[in-house]
């Protein structure tokens, strides 16, 4: 089975990313990204394993990792693209989010069976909203988004394992989710 580790967007950022993805799919006759995967930020690129013990080890690692951690702020700012195919909402992490992701990567690298690829290097956080099928379509999408804007605030408050059961074309499904502990704030009297 194929897995990935991600932060699943919540609230207004998730709604806006899904809305943009669906709008671009309608306007440009694309497959909506939301049909294949929920709005997310990839924290560990897809990997494969058939060993259930590996997945149990990963689940235990993530459950331990999120304990006593606070959500880490993110800013959703504008659009970007790469490979003349992928269009995304750009995410600017806070210092706390950058540290959180670095700490997670360090912990994941302790798993000897988990392989890392070049895409697991320095994170350029983004939420994909479209995959252009042709270069001309890509240029049209960029022009279309010129009048759009995204300026939202959010926070990494979960780390999730997603799985893809059949092949690389099947949808990604939630396998396990680990939410950060949030401490109550004392009200001033």
Characterize the structure shown.
The longest helix has 18 residues, at 11-28. The mean pLDDT is 90. The chain has a single domain (2-179), classed as Alpha-Beta Complex (Cyclic Phosphodiesterase, Chain: A). The chain has 189 residues and is an alpha+beta fold. Helices cover 33% and strands 32% of the residues. It is built from five helices and eight strands. It starts with a strand and ends in a 10-residue tail after the last strand. The strands form two sheets. The chain has a four-stranded antiparallel beta sheet. It has a four-stranded antiparallel beta sheet with strand order 5-4-3-6.
List keywords for this structure.
189 residues; alpha+beta; 5 helices; 32% strand; 8 strands
Give the SSE map.
Blueprint: E1 2-8, H1 11-28, H2 33-36, E2 40-48, H3 52-66, E3 72-82, E4 86-93, H4 95-108, E5 126-131, H5 135-145, E6 151-156, E7 158-164, E8 173-179
Antiparallel strand pairs: 1-2, 1-7, 3-4, 3-6, 4-5, 7-8
């Amino acid at each position: 089975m194929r897995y990935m580790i991600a932060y699943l967007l919540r609230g207004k950022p998730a709604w806006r990313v899904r809305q943009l993805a669906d709008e671009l799919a309608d306007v440009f006759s694309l497959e909506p990204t939301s049909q294949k995967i929920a709005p997310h930020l990839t924290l560990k690129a897809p990997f494969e394993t058939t060993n259930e013990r590996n997945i149990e080890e990963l689940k235990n690692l993530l459950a331990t990792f999120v304990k006593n951690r606070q959500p880490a702020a993110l800013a959703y700012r504008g659009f970007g693209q790469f490979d003349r195919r992928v269009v995304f909402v750009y995410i600017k992490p806070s210092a706390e989010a950058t540290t959180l992701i670095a700490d997670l990567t360090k912990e994941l690298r302790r798993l000897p069976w988990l392989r890392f690829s070049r895409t697991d290097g320095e994170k350029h956080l983004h939420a994909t909203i479209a995959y252009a099928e042709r270069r001309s379509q890509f240029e049209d999408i960029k022009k279309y988004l010129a009048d759009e804007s995204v300026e939202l605030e959010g926070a990494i408050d979960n780390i999730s394992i997603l799985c893809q059961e059949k092949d690389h074309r099947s949808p990604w499904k939630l396998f396990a989710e680990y939410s950060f502990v949030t401490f109550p704030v004392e009200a001033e009297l």
